[in-house]
Amino acid sequence: MQEVAEMTPYHLLGGDAVLRQLVDRFYDIMNSDPRASSIRAMHHEDSTLIRDKLFDFLSGWLGGPQRFMEKYGHPMLRARHMPFAISEDERDQWLMCMFQAMEEIPMENTLRDHLEDAFFRTADFMRNK
């Protein structure tokens, strides 16, 4: 019988290596696709720190190691995003980048559907205008 921990989205996705690939591809798309210009403008030129923060956050959010909590405390996503004007346009740009990055990661359709739904709900919750 498999451990419950192995059944988390983090483990089903492929753990650290695949998660890092997803995060890096997300930011590569955000940095290069003109359709993501509004969200790109919200970030520093050097995306190293934010890549690491998203990796750390997603690790715990997906059921893996709680790196973000260990380093920064509770994510408080809405509060952390409040300084940025986030409308449906910015939400949709973020999702476009994430969903495109996910297309390049092999995964089961049920996991992809679950992640797309979870990412949508979380991104939609960040809207503040």
TrEMBL record:
Domain of life: Bacteria
Pfam families recorded: Bac_globin
Source organism: Iodobacter ciconiae
Gene3D superfamilies: Globins
Protein name: Hemoglobin-like protein
Keyword annotations: Heme, Iron, Metal-binding, Transport
One term of GO molecular function: metal ion binding
Family listed: Belongs to the truncated hemoglobin family. Group II subfamily.
SUPFAM superfamilies: Globin-like
